[in-house]
Amino acid sequence: QVRLVESGGGLVQAGGSLRLSCAASGILSSVNTMAWYRQAPGKQRDFVARLTRSGNTFYIESVKGRFTISRDNAKNTLNLEMNSLKPEDTAVYYCNLYPPLNSWWGQGTQVTVSS
Q1: φ and ψ at residue 30, rounded to 5 degrees
Q2: 31-78 pLDDT per residue, tens
Q3: The predicted structure's pLDDT at residue 2
Q4: What is the pLDDT of residue 65?
Q5: Pairing relation of β-strands 67-72 and 77-82?
Q6: Which long-range contacts (CB under 8 A, 24 or more apart) does 10-15 make?
Q7: Largest CA-CA distance found in the chain, in angstroms, rounded
Q8: Whole-angstrom Cα distance, residue 11 to residue 18?
Q9: What's the CA gap between 67 and 104, in Å, rounded?
Q10: How far apart are CA 79 and CA 68, in angstroms?
Q11: In the prediction, which pLDDT does 24 show?
Q12: Choice between 2 and 19, residue whose per-residue pLDDT is larger
């Protein structure tokens, strides 16, 4: 049973930074592509960024240059460094495979950016 546990969210002012982590119960070395997703209030959950095992990354346009996805194989975590945060980044952030598996969704971590 895979358990993904996201952490690192919080309340931050616009322009601030946060670093999210996803503890991935030993699976990172065995999967190809992991990703971060987010769900804003009243909206569907959307893809944000992905990272392949070979190190290739892809970001949605609105976070390019501000967010950095990375993997720490030693700690078995997937990370998301978020800089220059904007109020529109407010959402619950989740990690999962890309494409995601429904059974792998964790509880997410709340990111709130105040203006």
Answers
A1: -110, 0
A2: 889 999 999 999 999 999 999 999 999 999 999 999 999 998 888 899
A3: 81
A4: 98
A5: antiparallel
A6: 10/110, 10/111, 10/112, 11/112, 11/114, 12/85, 12/111, 12/112, 12/113, 12/114, 13/113, 13/114, 14/85, 14/86, 14/87, 14/113, 14/114, 14/115, 15/84, 15/85
A7: 40
A8: 9
A9: 23
A10: 8
A11: 85
A12: 19
Predicted local distance difference test score (pLDDT) of residue 93? 98
Compute the chain's Rg from CA coordinates. Answer: 13
Please state, in angstroms and rounded to a whole number, the distance separating the CA atoms of residues 111 and 32.
26
Tokens representing 25? 């119960």
Query: Cα–Cα distance between 35 and 79 in angstroms, integer?
Result: 9
- pLDDT confidence bin for 27, thresholds 50/70/90: confident
